[in-house]
Amino acid sequence: MQKNNLGFPRIGINRQLKKACEQFWAEIITPKELHNVGSLIRTQNWAAQLDAGMDLIPCNDFSYYDHVLDVSLMVGNIPLRYAKVSAKYDAELELYFAMARGYQEDGLDIKAMEMTKWFDTNYHYITPEFYKGQKFRLFSRKIIKEFEEASLILGKAAKPVIVGPVSYLLLGKEINATFNRLELLDSLLEVYYDVFRELEDKGCQWIQLDEPFLVTDLTEQSKKAYSYCYKELHKRFPEINIMLTTYFGGLKDNTPLAISLPVQALHIDLVKAPEQLDAVLNIIPEDIILSLGIVDGRNIWKNDYLKSFDLIVKAMKKIGEERIMIAPSCSLLHVPLDLGLETGLDLRLKMWMAFAKQKLKEVNDLYAIVKGNTELLYKNQKVMQTRSQSALIHDKLVKERTERVDENYIKRKSIFSVRQEKQQKEFNFPLFPTTTIGSFPQTKKVRQMRSKFKNGGLAWDEYKNGICAEIDDAIRFQEEVDLDVFVHGEFERNDMVEYFGEKLNGIVITNYGWVQSYGSRYVKPPVIFGDVSRSADMTVQWIKYAQSKTNKPVKGMLTGPVTILQWSFVRDDQPRSETALQIALAIRDEVSALESAGIKIIQIDEPAIREGLPLCKSEWQDYLNWAVRAFRLASSGVNDETQIHTHMCYSKFNDIIHSIAEMDADVITIESSRSQLKLLDAFIDFKYPNEIGPGVYDIHSPRIPLVEEIEEHIQKTASVLPVRNIWVNPDCGLKTRNWEETSKALRNMTDAAKNLRRIFQ
Ligand code: GLN
Ligand code: ZN
Fold first, then answer.
1. Annotated catalytic residue 700
2. Which pLDDT does position 84 carry in this prediction?
């Protein structure tokens, strides 16, 4: 039985990668200095995995921005618009980051590639673009270099990890609809062959091909592509061991397909889908090794050794110990690095948790248990028992309150058309009202102020005055730019979920629990460990202050229950729907408090609604039912005149647009610009009933949108939606931008809205 790891966090123990990338972008450090940081992180990672006793250790799981973009570079899939950047630099790195972030320098103005959520996680990848007749070629040799580097450090062959060819194609999009991207498989495979050949020459034995699409509903064509692809690979490289890796769900109907592929090992996720073990064991051929994903790679709870042990024993009995590997369920990219750093955490809670390093130790422990170490099993059972019985988890009042929720709690007083009329009287907005999504640039000064206050280096009064001064500036700025609905700027918030996590009961915040969200943006998901409730106002004072400084309406700004749930590490001892309900009630209380404080517009952000969707369509409706219900529970306790906004971003929304409508927010601001307005297609067949602001520019790029571009965007929107329902706003919050960019972009935005008012009025 071997111990297998699929991927390790890549951001470094002190988040070095973030700092290094950002310094590189700001031209403070050289490519070589950035590479040195990367190399050091990799070296530390390999050492840690070796220490933890792993037999199969991944390489090429490291990435400077995104592992899907890495594949695009590997196979030379570089959209034509970046040709000028590659001509300018001979180095790969500038091109790579231009694709990820856009490029606006020396007269060039090139948009970034689209970004999409990685399955149902909060990690975002850069969407590959494909065109008809496309030919690939080996371009980036990163994987080879990392293999050599790793093997040197490990003293044995590392296991290179790449997104499998079929998943790579499925992750992307056709830039013109006249063909199917799976047609490109042959040309793509040529590059994989080149890579395999070189790896084999250099002594590589195992290659891990990640094919998470195998846990989703596949078309006949995709299934054929799988059979073809793996047959061809095997034909050419009979000596290389391919580990076909699936995760985030069960193989279900694709089980026969997966086990029919000529590979040496199959990895399955037994945390998300323990039930698939029987089905797989029943039909797995004798020459395939089974890698059991038993330690949760997506959550931070300590493994229940008895449960895992049972699964291992079951597999051992059926196919024998030699044909088994044990592993985390998926790459550990989705959990923080080391629980050992959390010296400030309540020890009772800490005892229940495990981060990446601890998870590898769990794999090792489970191995030892199989080999007869019952002591480890016994100790673990004690921890499991204390957790399930702990008074920290169970709050009787919360449980009683959720039971009382009935249909009256999830309905506004009147239907939308009635509310719209009342609200129009109340606010008297012009056509195409303009607003932003909530946050304004988080300058170094603001971040320092917050961390100084947190560490006790700044008294509350000083801190409060500091934040209020920022709010003053933000209000003045918005008056200058002439927006219609203001925000306070979210300067007091480090993160939209963490902020609420700090204030709600039943949730704890870690100090160093960072995970990558996209590129150099990392998040620190709160840990929901027990019943959730609210014991005091969370946002009222700041919003009230902002409102006192202007006659324009200021939006109260909250994070919605589904997003808090989705972006946290959630307790695994009750259904997610139950936890969502508890959070929704807490947010509902804050909504009421804002309304009582005279706030007339309240935005409840739900950017994560889409990513919570189960990977299999058959489970969608159940999820959507409780998710929509949770949002409505949070938002419907207000008067008709109070305008409820919500916001969503970075997903494909078209297939859930009905459910978005059912959320019944008065206004939704929604990302649409970075994905080239695909959202608008949804409104051709579906009459979206409420008001809506499809984002008019991409905020993840430093590029300034032109007035004409924004006008064109609004015009397009106006061709599919009633003019009086359209809002004008950026794609998302502006915290990652600087003030100069923000000012230029927003001025162009309000100019565009004004120009169009003249045309449409
Ligand atoms: N109100 C949040 C902000 O502006 C929304 C962020 C998001 O949608 N991800 O930052
Ligand atoms: Zn957003």
1. yes
2. 83
Residues 6+ apart with CB under 8 A from 86: 78, 95
What pLDDT digit, counting tens, does each position of 535-572 carry?
999 999 999 999 999 999 999 999 999 999 999 999 99
Is 241 exposed, middle or buried (CB count within 10 Å of its CB: 0-12, 13-18, 19+)? middle
Give pLDDT tens digits for 19-49. Answer: 999 999 999 999 999 999 999 999 999 999 9
Task: Please name the helix (run of DSSP H) or strand (run of DSSP E) that holds residue 116, with its range, or none.
Answer: strand 115-117
CATH topology of domain 402-760: TIM Barrel (3.20.20)
Q: Which residues contact 259 (CB under 8 A, 6 or more apart)?
A: 266, 280, 283, 284, 285, 288
Q: How far is the C-alpha of 290 from the C-alpha of 326, rounded, in Å? A: 8
Fold of 2-335+346-389: TIM Barrel (3.20.20)
Read off the pLDDT of each residue in 220-231 and give the average, rounded to a whole number.
98
Cβ-count burial of 322 within 10 angstroms (0-12 exposed, 13-18 middle, 19+ buried)? exposed
Decide: 731 in ligand 1 pocket, CB within 6 A: no
Q: Do domains 2-335+346-389 and 402-760 have the same CATH topology?
A: yes
DSSP class of residue 112 equals P
Domain ranges of the chain: 2-335+346-389, 402-760
Mean pLDDT of the chain: 96
Task: For ligand 1, say whether the CB of 732 is within 6 Å of any of its atoms.
Answer: yes
Cβ 509 vs Cβ 502: under 8 Å: yes
Q: What's the gap in Å between 459 CA and the centre of ligand 1?
A: 28
- The answer to whether the beta carbons of residues 326 and 309 sit under 8 Å apart is no
| Residue 693, beta-bridge partner list | 669
The arithmetic mean of pLDDT across residues 157-185, rounded, is 95
Taking residue 619's Cβ as centre, other Cβ atoms within 10 Å add up to 12
**Distance in angstroms (rounded) separating the CA atoms of residues 569 and 571:** 7
- What's the 543 CA to ligand 2 centre distance in angstroms? 19
HSE, side-chain direction, 13 A CA sphere, residue 24? 25
Out of 105-109, 311-315, 371-375, 383-387, which region has the weakest mean confidence (pLDDT)? 105-109
Which contiguous run of DSSP H or E holds residue 533? strand 527-533
Distance from Cα 734 to the centre of ligand 2, integer Å:
9
The residues, ordered by sequence, that sit 6+ positions from 248 with a Cβ below 8 Å of its Cβ are 119, 120, 121, 212, 215, 269, 272, 298, 330, 615
Strand partners, 648: 670
Q: Which positions ≥6 away from 756 have C-beta within 8 Å?
A: 431, 432, 711, 714, 715, 718
Distance CA 121, CA 298 (A): 8
- What are the tens digits of pLDDT across the range 362-399? 999 999 999 999 999 999 999 999 999 999 999 999 99
Ligand number nearest CA of 521 is 1
Q: In this structure, which long-range contacts are made by residues 415-421, counting pairs with CB atoms below 8 Å and at least 24 apart in sequence?
A: 416/664, 416/666, 416/689, 416/690, 418/640, 419/640, 419/641, 419/643, 419/666, 420/666, 420/690, 420/691
* Ligand 1 probe mutation, 517, 732, 736, most atoms within 8 A of CB: 732
